[in-house]
Amino acid sequence: MEKFVIVGGNRLKGTIKANGSKNASLPILAATLLSGGICTIQQVPRLRDVFVMQELLNYLGAKTVFEGNTMTVDCTYVQSQEISEDLMRKMRASNLVLGPLLGRFGNVKISYPGGCNIGSRPMNLHFKGLAALGAKISERFGYITASANQLAGTVIHFDVPSVGATENLMMAGVLAQGTTVIRNAAKEPEIVDLQNFLNAMGAKIVGAGTDVIRIEGVKELGSVTHTVIPDRIEAGTHMIAGAITQGDVTVANVIPEHLDPVIYKLREVGVTVEVGEDWVRVQGNGQLKAADIKTMPYPGFPTDMQPQMMALLTVADGTSVITETIFENRFKHVSEFRRMGADIYLEGHTAVVKGVKRLTGACVEASDLRAGAALILAALAGEDGTVLSNIEHIDRGYERIEKKYNALGARIIRVNS
Ligand SMILES: CC(=O)N[C@H]1[C@@H](OP(=O)(O)OP(=O)(O)OC[C@H]2O[C@@H](n3ccc(=O)[nH]c3=O)[C@H](O)[C@@H]2O)O[C@H](CO)[C@@H](O)[C@@H]1O
Ligand SMILES: C=C(OP(=O)(O)O)C(=O)O
């Protein structure tokens, strides 16, 4: 098992480049299953979840080549529409093959996906939407079977805006007969990227980025080359690395608008943030001030940045209130922060964080991807050394994060023990 040994106390300085977005790459790679040709996807991050998606595509009969950050996917000869439980359990985003396989082949059998333990993460909205398009859905022994001779467009209204359900429904709707309308759709930038990818393949979708998405069904989809958008969550994590170490960090390869919720919150906390065309620069200004946060669907403050922002607020002057509204179990990092000397009171969906002068080193565990990233940030600002275990969670979403931070002056060693 690998661990990180982190020596805190160094100010991070310099430029760090964000990779392509994990959460945009995964649905786009799943969407290649809809193509009768070869798709070339650029700026794909080399992450554990992406490798799992590649394994999934190969398992289904696709031919994939992943060189550098470009993945070529040929789904011409995809045959299988049934996926083993072992493979499905490797990540949450494996559920994104449901829509495209059903749309193209009219038949799919998968088990429930795995993924980070941050909440119950049901799939009822995916199933309700697909059933509204005419699919017959059944569940038996943990397996879900969906079938339809021909999906037919209709109006779907989500109870809550779900990113994954919006993506699955878009991918199922592109080859459906007639028009599919998704109301109360999720508005995340990764959904806009998926729309752009599908449209470049020949789909007719408008409205991604708003809460109404309209899809005119087409007969087939072709080949395309597409560049994935930069990862706003990775970029936001690096911004906090600059802020929490009172450093001076420029994050390159970003779409600043996607970072607005983080930029405005960091300014409220007293951090200087300069915004360029495709970069942001973060400078620590001495004292950090408390601020309240409520996670919300985009363009609200992202739940995927909540643990990292909590790390920053543990050392801010005053009391911050953090409310998690998206996932009911996304506070597992709190007990680990406490081991590092943080003063946090937890009640239900709310964490009350009283800032302390400094965190101390400790032996802590990453319970999930962003909790792990947040513990790195806390350790960078802490006194002494921290040993962080379960770092395989972090490798799901960050490509060699220790290498990037060490280039800015951090001291993080990956050890095997
Ligand atoms: C690969 C990927 O893109 N993952 C992101 C995606 O996850 P994911 O797509 O799984 O998250 P959703 O947007 O679906 O979840 C949002 C909320 O909807 C609920 N829900 C969802 C589906 C459903 O059928 N029924 C239901 O009730 C969930 O429990 C949650 O409370 O969006 C989340 C919310 O921004 C992010 O944290 C994840 O990083
Ligand atoms: C929760 C996340 O991812 P996933 O939905 O793939 O578990 C995340 O990226 O923070």
TrEMBL record:
The protein's Enzyme Commission number: 2.5.1.7
Modified residue annotations for 2-(S-cysteinyl)pyruvic acid O-phosphothioketal: 116
Involved pathway(s): Cell wall biogenesis; peptidoglycan biosynthesis
Source species, domain of life: Bacteria
Key words of the record: Cell cycle, Cell division, Cell shape, Cell wall biogenesis/degradation, Cytoplasm, Peptidoglycan synthesis, Pyruvate, Transferase
Keyword Cell division: yes
An annotated Gene Ontology molecular function: UDP-N-acetylglucosamine 1-carboxyvinyltransferase activity
Catalytic machinery residues: 116
Compartments, record wording: Cytoplasm
A GO CC annotation given for this chain: cytoplasm
Catalytic activity: phosphoenolpyruvate + UDP-N-acetyl-alpha-D-glucosamine = UDP-N-acetyl-3-O-(1-carboxyvinyl)-alpha-D-glucosamine + phosphate
GO biological process: cell division; cell wall organization; peptidoglycan biosynthetic process; regulation of cell shape; UDP-N-acetylgalactosamine biosynthetic process
Annotated UDP-N-acetyl-alpha-D-glucosamine binding sites: 92, 304, 326
Domain Enolpyruvate transferase: 8-404
Cited Pfam families: EPSP_synthase (PF00275)
Main location: cytoplasm
Top-level class of the enzyme under EC nomenclature: transferase
Residues binding phosphoenolpyruvate, per UniProt: 22-23
Keyword Transferase: yes
Family matches, as InterPro entries: Enolpyruvate_Tfrase_dom (IPR001986), Enolpyruvate_Tfrase_sf (IPR036968), MurA_subfamily (IPR050068), RNA3'P_cycl/enolpyr_Trfase_a/b (IPR013792), UDP_GlcNAc_COvinyl_MurA (IPR005750)
PANTHER family: UDP-N-ACETYLGLUCOSAMINE 1-CARBOXYVINYLTRANSFERASE (PTHR43783:SF1)
Entry function: Cell wall formation. Adds enolpyruvyl to UDP-N-acetylglucosamine.
Family: Belongs to the EPSP synthase family. MurA subfamily.
Protein name, as recorded: UDP-N-acetylglucosamine 1-carboxyvinyltransferase
Organism encoding this protein: Desulforamulus hydrothermalis Lam5 = DSM 18033
